[in-house]
Amino acid sequence: MKCELRDNTITAEGDAVSELYDRGFYGRVKDGRLELALVEGAYLLYRKKIEIFSNGESVDFKTFFEIASKRITDFELGYIVFKDMRERGYYTKMSPIGFRLYPRGGHPGKTAAHIFVYLISERSRLPLQRMIQELNRAENARKRLILAIVDEESDITFYELKTSVMAGGDSKPDEIETPAEAGLIGDRTIVWDPEMADFLHSTYFFGKKLDEFRLQLSLVESGYLLARKWIEIEGMGLEAFDRYAAEIDPGYVLKYSAYSDLRDSGHVVKTGFKFGTHFRVYKKFRTDTHSEYLVHAVSSDHAFSLPELSRAVRIANSVHKRMIFGYPNCDRGRVGYIEIAWIRL
Fold first, then answer.
1. CA–CA separation, 204 vs 173, rounded Å?
2. Measured between alpha carbons, how far is 141 from 96 in angstroms, rounded to an integer?
């Protein structure tokens, strides 16, 4: 079947509409002619379904691939993912970020696309704001958003992105009448009063017992309890403490915003250091329970390194936890959360 390469489009007439569009769901029909994207053209050329001409001369696969790669950014990545999905039984259509994917057994004209596929190379960085933009677009259209990352050996890893609402915990702190006396020593705070130390730890699971009488708190725990007047540190108010904590830990302010939001919503929040994240988070906390989430706080202008993102998600998956990234959300005035999970398409 003869097709003509024109700029960034391949056109065909005659039987192309019935053979390729009606039966194979490739391209789109415009003014009675079939128009194919270059990625679709490359795949059909590889399958020997079409013959492509440019300026009257037939173009082989190598020549066409080189031409398309110069005209379309990341063309080779698109071809790798398109070929993979087509050969696994999915019908796909092009989109500005990659592809629209139809469910197995469905196709254009019969069912709606249910997934937007965001195509990206492992060497690229993914800005958080772009991720939020595409996630909002997908969710507004009631679609899932899948990240297709192509590595240097052309293997594809798929991750699903979701907006997460971190609510429903059962350990939301109440108010108390008298703050507990605490002392700031290095990068932690010690609650001296045995009764209050036991209350904070056994009831709300703050800190870790230094011994049977005293409780030690991390910087974010100290800031949280200080802000809520559950503890008081001699000679140091909240503003002075925040400055002190930020000098010790440059990421303190960012981590504290996520910590306080999660605590206010009733979650129990403990360090996630051994998992390489800021926090491990529980909806309910007992000695025989495991945390449901790993939460890492990032800035609103953060750009993800994809190998780092992959490591974080894989670790979470290996210990049966959900990987959540928290970021300052100016629209809500609180913290926004995105869940990223490895999936098998």
1. 7
2. 15
User: Measured at the alpha carbon of residue 257, what is the angle toward residues 122 and 337, in degrees to the nearest 5?
Assistant: 45
Residue 60: CB partners within 8 Å, gap ≥ 6?
none
The pairing of strands 180-185 and 231-233 is: parallel
- The residues carrying an active-site annotation are 282, 290, 321
Q: What is the pTM of this model?
A: 0.91
Do the beta carbons of residue 327 and residue 336 sit within 8 Å?
A: yes
CA neighbours closer than 13 Å in the CB half-sphere of residue 83: 19
CA atoms within 13 A on the CB side of 150: 18
List C-alpha distances in Å: 253 to 106, 116, 143, 239, 297: 48, 34, 34, 12, 10
Task: Say if residues 37 and 99 touch (Cβ distance below 8 Å).
Answer: no
Which residues contact residue 188 at a Cβ distance below 8 angstroms, ignoring those fewer than 6 apart?
216, 217, 218, 219, 222
Burial 235-269 (b: 16+ CB within 10 A, else e): ebeeeebbebbbeebeebbbbbbbbbbbbebbbbb
Q: How would you write the pLDDT of the chain (345 residues) with one tens digit per residue?
A: 899 998 899 999 888 899 999 999 999 998 889 999 999 999 999 999 999 999 889 999 999 999 999 999 999 999 999 999 999 999 999 998 999 999 988 888 889 999 999 999 999 999 999 999 999 999 999 999 999 999 999 999 999 999 999 887 666 666 777 899 999 999 999 999 999 999 999 988 999 999 999 999 999 999 999 999 999 998 899 999 999 999 999 999 999 999 999 998 889 999 999 999 999 999 876 655 789 999 999 999 999 999 999 999 999 999 999 999 999 986 666 899 999 999 998
Using an 8 Å Cβ cutoff, are 152 and 181 in contact?
A: no
**Which two structure tokens, joined as six digits, stand for 293?**
């989430």
